[in-house]
Write a structure and sequence with these properties.
The chain is of the alpha+beta class and about 190 residues long. The chain has two domains: about 35 residues; about 160 residues, Jelly Rolls (Sandwich), CATH 2.60.120. Helix content is about 15%, strand content about 40%. It contains one helix and 14 strands. Strands 2, 4, 6, 7, 10, 11 and 13 form a seven-stranded mixed beta sheet that branches. A five-stranded mixed beta sheet has the order 1-3-14-5-12, with no helix packed on it. The protein is globular and about 65 Å long. The relative contact order is 0.24.
């Protein structure tokens, strides 16, 4: 009788452990995934996708000698499509010149939404106002003379290690992140649903 009770307890314990693993194992597997890497595109309509999680973005500025047509733009883009309606948090961090994190550069990320219907349009339809510690903005300055609010007069650079923006999105809404920097940079963009 004692052996049957012990076997029953062990069986119940095994079932509880299996249930816990089935609930938490997928989350652990998602967190263990490698960080995605993308290179921002000069054409916002061809912008590579970032997803919920962390993506390392490389963004290159245009050199004036490459600016041959009016359809070109001086900034590069990535895009995020909201998988569900809700509030999303975007954190941009480690905004550094490629190969030299201490280099002094100008840099900011502007958030926009909607496709522009004009042929050859260089920018999405409208700016997206997001909540930050510095108030509601659409451009997140990271390396500039006035990092929280505007580019100001760039005589002395300040550097914010990260910027966080929160915004409500509809299911399927696309957010374009416009990288405007004076040198090729890499940074991490983390997207989280709140």
């Amino acid at each position: 009788m004692k052996t049957i009770k012990k076997s029953t307890k062990l069986l119940c314990l095994s079932l509880v452990v299996a249930l816990v693993l089935s609930v938490f194992a997928p989350t652990a597997a998602i967190e263990a995934q490698a960080v995605r890497k993308v290179t921002a595109n000069y054409n916002y309509k061809k912008a590579p996708a970032i997803k919920v999680g962390t993506t390392t973005v490389t963004a290159k500025p245009y050199k004036s000698s490459n600016l041959k047509t009016k359809t070109k733009t001086a900034v590069s883009w990535v895009k995020f499509t909201a998988p569900k309606a809700g509030t999303y948090q975007f954190t941009i961090s480690n905004y550094a010149k490629k190969g030299n994190s201490n280099a002094v550069i100008y840099g900011c990320v502007t958030m926009m939404t909607g496709k522009n219907t004009y042929a050859g349009a260089r920018y999405p339809k409208s700016y997206l106002s997001v909540k930050t510690k510095g108030g509601k903005v659409n451009t997140l300055y990271l390396r500039s003379a006035a990092s929280y609010t505007s580019s100001g007069s760039v005589s002395k650079y300040t550097y914010l290690p990260s910027r966080t923006a929160t915004v409500k999105l509809k299911k399927g809404q696309v957010v374009y992140l416009d990288f405007n920097n004076s040198s090729t940079i890499t940074c991490n963009v983390k997207v989280k649903k709140k």
